[in-house]
UniProtKB/TrEMBL annotation:
<dbReference type="InterPro" id="IPR000838">
    <property type="entry name" value="RNA_pol_sigma70_ECF_CS"/>
</dbReference>
<dbReference type="InterPro" id="IPR013325">
    <property type="entry name" value="RNA_pol_sigma_r2"/>
</dbReference>
<keyword id="KW-0238">DNA-binding</keyword>
<feature type="domain" description="RNA polymerase sigma-70 region 2">
    <location>
        <begin position="25"/>
        <end position="91"/>
    </location>
</feature>
<keyword id="KW-0804">Transcription</keyword>
<dbReference type="InterPro" id="IPR013249">
    <property type="entry name" value="RNA_pol_sigma70_r4_t2"/>
</dbReference>
<dbReference type="Pfam" id="PF08281">
    <property type="entry name" value="Sigma70_r4_2"/>
</dbReference>
<keyword id="KW-0805">Transcription regulation</keyword>
<dbReference type="GO" id="GO:0006352">
    <property type="term" value="P:DNA-templated transcription initiation"/>
</dbReference>
<dbReference type="InterPro" id="IPR013324">
    <property type="entry name" value="RNA_pol_sigma_r3/r4-like"/>
</dbReference>
<dbReference type="InterPro" id="IPR014284">
    <property type="entry name" value="RNA_pol_sigma-70_dom"/>
</dbReference>
<keyword id="KW-0731">Sigma factor</keyword>
<dbReference type="InterPro" id="IPR007627">
    <property type="entry name" value="RNA_pol_sigma70_r2"/>
</dbReference>
<feature type="domain" description="RNA polymerase sigma factor 70 region 4 type 2">
    <location>
        <begin position="123"/>
        <end position="174"/>
    </location>
</feature>
<protein>
    <recommendedName>
        <fullName>RNA polymerase sigma factor</fullName>
    </recommendedName>
</protein>
<dbReference type="GO" id="GO:0003677">
    <property type="term" value="F:DNA binding"/>
</dbReference>
<dbReference type="InterPro" id="IPR036388">
    <property type="entry name" value="WH-like_DNA-bd_sf"/>
</dbReference>
Amino acid sequence: MHPDDKEILQLAQDSDRQNEALVLLMKKYKERLYWHIRKMVIIHEDADDLLQNTFMKAWKNLRNFRGDASLYTWLYKIATNETLNYINKKKESLLNEDADMEMMLGNMLETDALFSGDEIQKRLQKCLLALPEKQRLVFNMKYFDDMTYEQISQILGTSVGALKASYFHAVRKIEAFIKNEVF
């Protein structure tokens, strides 16, 4: 059983128990955040590094957490920003060619020994890689992470209406990819 967020935040306020708060925070959210990041970057090592960066940033700012959003939403926002910054830097190194990034991640998905999904899951991941970044992110958060549009709105700073539109377009594109078997 994981401690509640209130307990973690109380521990974070006590300078003698901050490390304990971080350990509890990591135990509670590590797996969900890892998979959120991994769906965006595909590669285990990159996801692991980004997860560490996320928790380091959270640890540095935990005492200043204002509670405007839930701890869960705050952590997802940090993880999402870290991941998007990483992806953008990676794209820059590939001369901003999205097709190169998509192809590179698709190839890595094929050879990733740590990918535990079946062929259908692999095909879905390839479809997702073909989506524009924002649509992929919104789809992952809504479909896989089962987040509400309101939670996603808090994390991404986008209106609920825009998120619904992004999700709708993502679903339509995935259906078209599957129907046309473009893999």
